[in-house]
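Risk register update: the risk of archive-format incompatibility is retired. Evidence:
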Amino acid sequence: MKVTDILRVKGNTLYTVNPDELLASAVKTMAELDIGSLPVMEHGDLVGMLTFREVISAVVANGGSVGERRVRSVMDDAPLTCTPSTEIDEVRRMMLLRHARYMPVLERRELMGVISFYDVAKTVVDAQDFENRMLKAYIRDWPADGGGAASGS
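Archived output:
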């Protein structure tokens, strides 16, 4: 399974922020849209990632408020990225190693979407559930004379 499978399910809606936008405005957008991250775009290029982790750190550093800070001053300017063709197992490994909850998906330099650790976990669980259902159906339909199942005699 690949990242493109997650993006297909998530749809095309993508919200971004400019690095010179006020952090307070970006945080308001995140709260209103109930999203945990915003890719930071400048001149059509991904230049960073703003997640609740950076927001919380900025609030703590500023005594409980975001103040007049700009997104650029708190964003992760080297976010972990993947491509639509990256395997889900590889994404899961990368996210675990970097403790990343969100990952922008780039095809060449174009931002295709953002996947979350939740998206990856849900995809893995759904795939396992499907496999389990198929195995149970196979076992239930096991041929009586097939020699694979032990007889009760």
